Amino acid sequence: MILLLLLALALPVRAQETLRFPKPFFFGLASAPGQAEDGLNDIWAAWGRAGRIAGYADTPVPDERLEFWSHPEVELDWAARSGAGVYRLGVDWGRVEPAPHRFDETALARYKRILQIAHSRHLKVMVTLMHHSVPPWVQARGGWLNDATRADYLEFAQKTIAALHGRADWWVSFNEPNVFAPLAYTVGLWPPGGKRPPWSLLALGPYRGETVKALDRMAAAHDALYEWAHREYPGIKLGFALNMARYAGKTWFARLCARYPDYLLNWRFPEETRGRMDFFGVNYYGAEWVSDGHLVLDPAEEYSEAGRAVYPEGLYELLKEVHARFPAPPIIITENGIADSTDVLRPAYLLEHLAAVARARAEGVPVAGYLFWTLSDNLEWSDGYCPKFGLLSVDRAHGLRRTPRPSFYLFRRVATTREVTPAMRAAAWALVASHAGKPRPMCRAPDAQTALATPRERPFSRTDWRFK
Q1: Which long-range contacts (CB under 8 A, 24 or more apart) does 255-259 make?
Q2: Annotated catalytic, 301?
Q3: Which of 37, 288, 335, 352 is catalytic?
Q4: Among candidate residues 144, 210, 196, 213, the one with its CA nearest the CA of residue 174
Q5: pLDDT tens track for 128-178
Q6: Type and span of the H or E element at 445
Q7: Of 64, 97, 176, 313, which residue is the catalytic one?
Q8: What domains lie within the chain, and their CATH numbers?
Q9: 176 classed as catalytic
Q10: Model-level pTM?
Q11: Please, is 120 exposed, middle or buried when counting C-beta atoms within 10 Å of its C-beta (0-12, 13-18, 19+)?
């Protein structure tokens, strides 16, 4: 106890204050159908079987994901035990509409039942309509590179909202369109995998590259859905969940290079949907350090196993900027988390990011809630099962058995007491400091892009990345 008090006194003055999150602020957990549902014959199953997901073939029962479709009560029971008040899940478009204009009423009824199970555990529900996946038939027609996909999406989204209205507390039209479009249509790391030249990401005056057009089609689809939803269901809460990174550099040239991805990936989509959002969803994982015109894994910085630089300061900065640009809607942290199988970084990561949220709220930023990513280790898209994002570890060789990590109990304490004390922050940082320089797993290659099936070693950083 004496050591904890000394560590607390060593923190900046603001870190010596107890941070409080009174109601109606809410805590919750986030997931996605493509990462959690079994029985999906989707583009991600095909991508894995084609050898495009790291380590997929060597992972026990990879297609089962987390069995959220057949056994949702397992995950939802753990969610209820965590103290969360909100659970974010998704509806898989291809499951609901397996062929053009043909809707599976049984699937919609099953989703309705899953929402009932969540509500029976006293969980409010946020439902995402597109979370990094399109039906195989949409993919075959060109996905969001095809103008017809906008109308296809609207038909699906309207049908789903009509079927589930009254059971969802919030609706998310798109999750991270600014990530999906570049990785699927320019970089080629996500299905369909065809690479395009860098100028497909350019938007200069009237010129728009193909990937920018795809992003803009999703923005137009959101706008049309918003107008329809508010005509049909006044009072509905519809927004989006946008991945927002702090693009940063350590030289003037690197900072200059970071300005374009900041504009294109952080601000283009919300600017095109201005006035048509009931909340602004922020997914934040960290900084993207730029050097020599491209993203790098900076050896001086701390990173998650998935290659995101840990930088709580960036969340505070982005929350302030979001509110300055879009002062009307409340902000929800729709995702924030870290891939960390050691569970050494996760406790401090959670608390320091909440410190950033508390600071922003104290300065008038209307942050309404915080959803942690995620409850259980899952399929991290093309990175496979190597990055461990869960508060629960999952033993895939033994029936997907869940085991709570220490951070699960920390999250429960925060969610139930609604406060973060200086002693909690000091203890979490003492754990990080005690591992400085020791080896840890990293699921990203040194090129900052290639996913690894088997993690390599990287030392824990000696950088003090706490929120200042």
Answers
A1: 255/290, 257/290, 257/293, 258/288, 258/290
A2: no
A3: 335
A4: 144
A5: 999 999 999 999 999 999 999 999 999 999 999 999 999 999 999 999 999
A6: none
A7: 176
A8: 21-419 (3.20.20.80)
A9: yes
A10: 0.96
A11: exposed
